[in-house]
Amino acid sequence: MKGSLFLTLMLLSTTILFGQDIKIGFKDSIQSKVLNENRKIIVKLPLNYNCSDKSYPVLYRLDGNLDMYFETVGTINRLVHMDELIPDMIVVMIENTNRNRDMMPANTSFFTSEPGADNFKEFIETELIPYINNSYRTTNEKLLCGQSLSALFTLYYFLTNPASFDSFIVCSGGFPDCEEYFIKLTNDYMETGPDKPTNIFLTHGQKDFLDPEGVIKKQLLDFTKRIESNEKTICKLKIYEDEGHVPFQSLYHGLRFIYSSKK
């Protein structure tokens, strides 16, 4: 029964995405003055959005594309309609243009161009979020999710402006060749900290091909230990023994963790 319901919801989401009459999932774009380019997004509205006047939290997911859209919608539909563990929410998938530029906050041996993470963060805060709030019925609750390189950006966002989002989900994040830079950001975070309770959920695959010697795993363990000591930060690192890079269940477990901590 549950499996059939999940499949039905997935098929419904797929149909609606390309439908003409009921627009619950669709593509949109914003002409960004900050980035001086057009940024495409994919928006998913709750199934009952057009049948009520209810407002919803918003999940912003980086590296947005159709494959990620289907994965995200399937995960949320399961947690909302089958497990009944989280509230339904609006999803905003942010498509990439120049991924390395946007996600990198500092230069490294493999990234020597001008870092663009600060501008990308400004785009999200001053253009994208206001656009979504003005276009749809949203609550004040916002979540940010990134994976791999965009997980590094999510960590950067968390450390430099934790009040912007209520929760952060970091899938296979790390500090490749920029550990000292992030240690400084972490020290600054520990001195000031967030003004309100903030959730951060991190994942790592024990079989991650990018971490053959366990360096990233140690970075995340050390980082988590420090962040956990902040009284307003609710933090968890989940390590998957049999998973590789960006464990598939990261978003599922992240959302479960975030909303179980709110109870």
Fill in the keyword field for this structure.
single chain, about 260 residues, alpha/beta, Rossmann fold, eight-stranded mixed β-sheet, about 20% strand
Sum this structure up briefly.
The chain has 8 helices and 8 strands, in the order H-E-E-E-H-E-H-H-E-H-E-H-E-H-E-H. By secondary structure, it is α/β, with parallel strands linked by helices. Helix 1 crosses helix 2, helix 2 packs across helix 8 and helix 6 packs parallel to helix 7.
Topology:
Layout: H1 2-17, E1 25-32, E2 37-44, E3 56-61, H2 66-82, E4 90-94, H3 99-103, H4 117-135, E5 138-147, H5 149-160, E6 167-171, H6 179-192, E7 198-205, H7 215-228, E8 233-240, H8 250-261
Parallel strand pairs: 3-4, 3-5, 5-6, 6-7, 7-8
Antiparallel strand pairs: 1-2, 2-4
Helix pairs in contact: 1-2, 2-8, 6-7
Written account of the structure:
There is one protein chain. The protein is of the alpha/beta class and 263 residues long. The chain has a single domain, classed as Alpha/Beta hydrolase fold, catalytic domain (Rossmann fold, 3-Layer(aba) Sandwich), CATH 3.40.50. The protein is 41% helix and 22% strand. The protein contains eight helices and eight strands. Strands 1-2-4-3-5-6-7-8 form an eight-stranded mixed sheet, with helices on both faces. A hairpin with a 4-residue loop joins strand 1 (25-32) and strand 2 (37-44). The two termini are 28 Å apart.
Strand line-up in the sheet with most strands: 1-2-4-3-5-6-7-8
Helix content: 40-55%
Mean pLDDT: 90
- Return the domain count: 1
Give the radius of gyration.
18 Å
- Which structural class best describes the helix and strand composition? alpha/beta
What general form does the structure show? globular
- For CATH, the homologous superfamily is named as Alpha/Beta hydrolase fold, catalytic domain
CATH architecture grouping? 3-Layer(aba) Sandwich
CATH class: Alpha Beta
| pLDDT < 50 runs, ≥5 residues | 4-8
* Distance between the amino and carboxyl termini: 28 Å
SSE string, helices as H and strands as E: HEEEHEHHEHEHEHEH
Question: Within the CATH hierarchy, at the fold level, what is the topology?
Answer: Rossmann fold
Largest sheet: 8 strands, mixed
